[in-house]
Each structure stands twice: as structure tokens, then as C-alpha cells.
User: What shape does this take?
Amino acid sequence: MVRIKSIVGNNFSGKTCILRLDLNIPLSEDGEILDDTRILESIPTIDYLINQSAKVIIISHIGRPKGKFNKNYSFKPLIQDISKRINREIFFIEHKNQSKISTILDSQPSGTLFLLDNVRFNEGEENSNPDFIDFLSSFSDVFINDGFGTIHRNHSSITGITNKLPSFGGILLEKEIINITECISAKSSNSTAILGGSKISDKIPIIENLSNNFEKVIITGGMIRPFLIASDKLKQKNISEIKEEIFYAEKILQKHSQIYVPEQLVCSENINEEPIILHSSQINDSDLIFDIGPNSIDDIGKMILESDKIIWNGPPGVYENKNFSNGTKKLINFIVNSKSKLKVAGGGSTVASINYYKASDYFSHISTGGGAFLRLLEGKFLEGIEVLKDE
Assistant: This one.
């Protein structure tokens, strides 16, 4: 089990703390917050520090402003909504005033919560510029990282600053690491991993690692087609565009016998046309796979219901479309009703589907990270975790 230097049990009274969060949250075209999970999950760490009368400067990013100020990526319009959600007043520091940050901090009492505007407005953030790292460390006593979704980045505010300041992991970061690694490594006799995605080549390390730790690995999403072709259960004339994916699928199937690929699927030539349920042997080149058929999803359900640990990344269908939502809806229902106490899920579309069906309370852990979650599924240590490890 990976252990990091935790804020829990440490005293930050009178300290000025930089708190790295992941507030790169989804927004509507009108700038409304669509999912506030990452904000809400940051509350325990914020409360822990403010209740000790620390000064806390939140730093985070939103979007990709490419090292320049862009009002479309500013946190300024979101301050009231964020403040309301964490139930605390936030003192906002505009980008144009960040050079005066020490004076601003000195003007406010202990126990004040600050938010520095988008840290990616600074060119030195993403390229770990030493001068920008020096700037970040110049106005703080302690660095705390609670932004799990960014922990795989080698940026100034994630790894670089840890060389300058005493550094700790926040409550969310510690919870993410413990829950995900425990689910992967825990001993089991009947475990299931469900893995989706469009490209096998992107998921090879994950499939390899999960195959070593789970009795069954269920393939969903865009990976289904090349796996079925590789196992000679789907005949396709034109394979030029997915030839490499089929090659990878063949190698994986040769090595791992526990891979399950659904054979009854919900197809259509266009997402706006009526769906048709086909067996893999009936699927033509023009048929697009949009969901898993009822027989296959029921087979998957039997595996899940008896599982003692479950990890899930990737909805099996286009759940937002009623014609292709049954697979995702039933999969979530099976996980909810399984006997497993370890039920971990992660990834943007996966979490969105869980929230869509109001099932979040039934999972033991839902990750706030996308790429970071996938990197942990690979069994790799992440850059931002490495610099916080408790030796």
C-alpha cells in the first residue's frame, strides 16, 4: 500500500498553506457548474486547515489557457457558486494582482480562505519553470496537494513546489489512493473488472494489470469490436482502420483467459436510427455497436452479483440515448445489488452515468480523477504521489 505524508494529525495553526485542488470542473455554455463533485470532495481538507486558523490559498486550473490570461478560463465568475458549495467566504486574488499576493495575504486574518486565479495563466506552470516554482513557494509555509485529478502531471504546482516546501497530501488525495489501490490489490476469490474505452492500445497496461488482480475482466465500449474480430466471432471485411487494435486484442486474448467479450449487442447504422439486437456473427461492417444486448448484459450480471470486489471504468453504451441505455442502467443495478463491499468506479463518463442514475451512494468509492484514475489502474506510481510518499 502506497502511503503519503498526510495532513491528518499535523498542526497547521498560524501557517500559510498553498492548497492544490482540481477545480477543472465541467461547465455549461452559460458557465453553470454541471458537476460539483470535486468541489464538495475538497471540503474536508479545507475545513481541517481553516479550523486550525491557517491561511489557505487554493490554487487550481481550469481549461487550457496556454500560459496567458484568458477571461474565459478565469475562476472569477465561479467564486460565488464555489463559495456557496463549500459554505465559506473566499477572498479572490485576480491574476493581475498575483505579484502583490504577499501584501494581500498579510492584510487578512488567520483562518481566511483565498483562491488564486487560474494557475495555468502562468507559462511557468506546465513547464515547471524554476522561477515560477520560486514564486509559488515565496508566500507560503506549507504545500498541500488534494487535487487527485491532476496528480499525474509534472507541473510546478504539483511536483516542483514540493522541492521548496514541507509537503503533504490532503484528505481526498489520501482517500483516493487508499480506496483504489486496496480494490486492486485486495485478495479475492471472485472479482470483476469492467473496462471500456475506444482504443485497446490506450488500455493495454490497464488490462494487463487488472488481469493479474481480477478473476474476470469484462470488455465494453469501442474495444468490443476488435476483440470479437480477434476471437473470430465477428467477420469484418474492411479492417484497415482497426488492424492495429485487432493485433493488440489477439495478444491479450492469447495471454489472458479471463477476458469476457459480450457477443449479443445493440447496433444501428446511425445513432439516430432504430436499434437492432444482433449476435456478433450477424454484425456487418456498416453496423455500429452502441450498447450490450440483454442476454450478454444478463451474463455479465451473473458475474457481478457474485463478485467480492468490483472496479469499473467505461459505460457499456450511450446511456444518454434511451435506445442504448439499457446496458449501463442494468450494469449499475447489478453493481449496486452485488455482495461486494469493494465497489470502485472512475472516469468522467462513468461517474456521469452513476450520477445520472442516482447510484453514487451505493459505491464504496467514486474517483474524482480521470487520467489519474487510469494511471493507478495501470499499477503505476504517479508523479504527484511520488513526491509525497511517506518513506
Notes: The two ends are 12 Å apart (CA to CA).
